[in-house]
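Marked as duplicate of an earlier ticket. Keeping the data here for the record.
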Amino acid sequence: MSAGASTTAIAARLGVTPAAISQHVKILREANLVTTTRLGTAVRHTRTPLAEHFLRENGWLGGEQPDPERSVI
């Protein structure tokens, strides 16, 4: 499973605001696709097993390295 990423790291990678990432992560968390863990003042978002299954079954993950343009968490 992915090691996860912080809100700020995801925002920087995608070129959007941390607020936008927080809104999207909230929806993913409600769908049980992401978990969020607080680390001091930061948070780390990690894919759930359900998300891993969905990504693998749809060809986004597999034996090869994930395409960084397609996966940020």
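See parent ticket for discussion. The chain is about 40% helix and 20% strand.
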